[in-house]
């Protein structure tokens, strides 16, 4: 084989996909592994896309995104407390591209990015591609929150960004205002970006504190969001990136070089999405999380209380198996798929996703309980 980029030699496929693939190859297996809404995309959003196609809105959109959508995103974010303009928006191919543009745009080879762990595996992949160094900052001992002491110990002259995700995947934890105050006190006014992965912001049991509420961080904040999770639009691949206007003008060049622009008819549907009521879905996830927590309590498993997203992260270290062995055996012997903590730069835990029917959830947890009793 001819030479390739050296960074590719250290990149691997997501462990999440590996376990969902194993589940798919196992007859009768119930997957509680993948974090993808099981609801259809709401009808008004589908109708808007169809109408746009019928109007032949299939030509190139502006690189930044449709002006109408950028205005609506700006309006939406302003309502959440981020006073911004449409010129601070770039419509992206999901939050994945938003994160890629944000991180590739602010780091150089050898720069360090602090990532609280457990963390979504995509982060390491992007940083590896960028030639940057991911500095893992464990949070388990701090209740999956951020502390000034631990964060301060991670910051060096090479630190260029802190990458934060709340509500968190895989724990479901929501960073408190005190956690964000710790960040602000250490990085405000310094050459350190705060990259905020806020894809689950609408899937929480209350208001999610965000760094945009700290005026002193506004010029250092890069905000990534997605339409995938809150609107059940994972296959549509739509998201957006926001930040200081001057920086966004430069990041727009990277986005334009990667994808040029997102499809026009999809962006028209995204405008409708921002005005679509998804409270029924959110309430369903809340009920499912509560049900899973009740069942885990009955099984005697400990876990951080989930306050958002659609994940629960129980500890399984006491069973004498590595989390990877635990999940492999669970699929093979009980027909239930979870994701091991090692996929999130952690160990001794597994992630349960609530993205399935109540019947599948009940059956899957019944099987998990029987598996634990047999160990």
TrEMBL record:
Taxonomic superkingdom: Bacteria
Domain Aminotransferase class I/classII large: 29-368
PROSITE patterns (UniProt xref): AA_TRANSFER_CLASS_1
Alphabetical UniProt keywords: Aminotransferase, Pyridoxal phosphate, Transferase
Listed cofactors: pyridoxal 5'-phosphate
Enzyme Commission code: 2.6.1.-
A UniProt-annotated Pfam family: Aminotran_1_2
BP GO terms, sorted: amino acid metabolic process
GO molecular function, one term: pyridoxal phosphate binding
Family label: Belongs to the class-I pyridoxal-phosphate-dependent aminotransferase family.
Protein name: Aminotransferase
Origin species: Candidatus Faecousia excrementigallinarum
């Amino acid at each position: 084989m001819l030479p390739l980029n050296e960074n590719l030699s250290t990149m691997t496929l997501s462990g999440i996909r590996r376990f969902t693939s194993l589940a798919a190859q196992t007859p009768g297996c119930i997957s509680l592994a993948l974090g993808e809404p099981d609801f259809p995309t709401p009808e008004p959003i589908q109708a808007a896309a169809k109408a746009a196609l019928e109007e032949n809105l299939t030509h190139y959109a502006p690189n930044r995104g449709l002006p109408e959508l950028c205005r609506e995103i700006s309006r939406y974010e302003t309502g959440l407390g981020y006073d911004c303009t449409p010129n601070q928006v770039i419509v992206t191919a999901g939050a994945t591209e938003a994160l890629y543009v944000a991180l590739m745009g602010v780091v150089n080879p050898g720069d360090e990015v602090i990532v609280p762990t457990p963390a979504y595996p995509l982060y390491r992949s992007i940083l590896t591609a960028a030639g940057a160094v991911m500095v893992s900052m464990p949070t388990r001992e701090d209740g999956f929150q951020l502390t000034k002491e631990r964060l301060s110990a991670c910051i060096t002259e090479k630190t260029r960004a802190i990458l934060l995700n709340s509500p968190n995947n895989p724990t479901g934890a929501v960073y408190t205002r005190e956690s964000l105050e710790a960040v602000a006190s250490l990085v405000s006014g310094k050459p350190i970006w705060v990259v905020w992965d806020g894809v689950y912001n609408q899937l929480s049991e209350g208001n999610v504190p965000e760094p945009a509420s700290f005026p002193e961080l506004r010029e250092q904040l890069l905000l990534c969001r997605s339409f995938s999770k809150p609107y059940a639009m994972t296959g549509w691949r739509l998201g957006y990136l926001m930040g200081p206007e001057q920086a966004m003008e430069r990041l727009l060049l990277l986005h334009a070089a990667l994808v040029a622009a997102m499809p026009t008819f999809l962006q028209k549907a995204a405008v409708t999405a921002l005005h679509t009521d998804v409270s029924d879905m959110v309430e369903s996830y809340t009920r499912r999380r509560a049900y899973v927590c009740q069942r885990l309590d009955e099984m005697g498993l400990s876990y951080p209380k989930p306050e958002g997203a659609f994940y629960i992260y129980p500890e399984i270290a006491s069973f004498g198996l590595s989390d990877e062995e635990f999940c492999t055996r669970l699929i093979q012997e009980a027909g239930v798929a979870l994701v091991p903590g090692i996929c999130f730069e952690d160990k001794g835990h597994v992630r349960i996703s609530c993205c399935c029917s109540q019947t599948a959830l009940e059956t899957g947890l019944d099987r998990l309980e029987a598996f634990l009793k047999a160990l």
